[in-house]
Design goal:
Blueprint: H1 2-10, E1 30-31, H2 39-45, E2 51-54, E3 57-60, H3 70-79, E4 87-88, E5 96-97, E6 102-103, H4 107-110, E7 117-123, H5 129-135, E8 149-151, E9 160-164, E10 167-168, H6 169-181, E11 187-191, H7 193-196, E12 207-209, E13 219-221, H8 228-245
Parallel strand pairs: 7-8, 7-9, 9-11, 11-13
Antiparallel strand pairs: 1-4, 2-3, 5-6, 5-13, 10-12
Helix pairs in contact: 2-3
Length: about 250
């Protein structure tokens, strides 16, 4: 018992400052110049259509992106260079606000919230990768509660619906009912490539697709899965959006 108390008194605080960059091996936002001769090959290599050619440059739809690295490998092969000119950085792809048509900046984490945000999570058909990362939000390292964000068991008690997974036919009605049960004003967050882009599993009789095909989405969090830090940035941005609507 005394050893436990001694450890509690001498250990450092576990909660860390939120960082929007991962380890050196983490695949985040794309950077670098892709040669014009390699653009078509990169676009063809993308399994979800997130990479597209824009003239002599490229554009990335991070809502669909799986961060699989196939475009980087295709760029190196098509350009004939041992080192790819196109590369993943270790920086998170930031959440995207539909209402303001812009990406969330890192400043939202440093801002002090004036109110709380209550969230109802709905797994619409995920592989559970996003759900595991979401579970880490409540541990001492990320400590989501310090920002005034809480998860609720009922959509009737929540301000926002957080959707993970590609929406399946079996859960399409559940998603609609959960959205309708939210009190006004309400927000919807599509978390992860499945809910945000909907192209992960392609077309099937069992799949509806992205969350915005069923309910209106206000904020998208890219990633497969997103890191907890990116989720926190999205949640804090959602809290600010809700405060503006009240």
């Amino acid at each position: 018992m005394f050893k436990v108390l001694e450890r509690l008194l001498h250990d450092k605080i576990a909660t860390e400052n939120i960082s929007l960059s991962g380890s050196a091996r983490f695949r985040g936002q794309l950077a670098g110049k892709c040669p014009a001769t390699a653009l078509d090959a990169c676009a063809k290599a993308c399994p979800v259509g997130a990479f597209s050619r824009k003239g002599d440059s490229y554009a990335i739809d991070y809502r669909r992106c799986l961060f699989c690295g196939r475009c980087v490998a295709a760029c190196a092969q098509a350009a004939g260079a041992p080192d790819a000119l196109l590369a993943h950085t270790a920086v998170d792809a930031m959440p995207y606000l539909v209402e303001k048509a812009q990406q969330v900046t890192a400043d939202v984490i440093r801002q002090k919230l004036g109110r709380s945000l209550h969230v109802r999570h709905l797994d619409a058909g995920s592989c559970n990768a996003c759900d595991f990362e979401m579970g880490a939000l409540s541990n001492p390292v990320y400590d989501l509660h310090r920002y005034g964000v809480h998860f609720d068991a009922s959509p009737r008690h929540a301000d926002m619906l957080m959707v993970t997974g590609t929406v399946t036919r079996n859960l399409e009605q559940a998603l609609r009912m959960s959205y309708e049960a939210l009190p006004d004003p309400k927000l919807v967050m599509a978390c992860g490539a499945c809910a945000a882009g909907g192209e992960t599993y392609g077309a099937s009789y069992a799949i509806v697709g992205a969350a915005d095909k069923v309910v209106p989405v206000d904020i998208y969090v890219p990633g497969c899965p997103p890191r907890p830090s990116a989720m926190i940035a999205g949640l804090l941005a959602a809290a600010d959006m809700l405060a503006e609507k009240l």
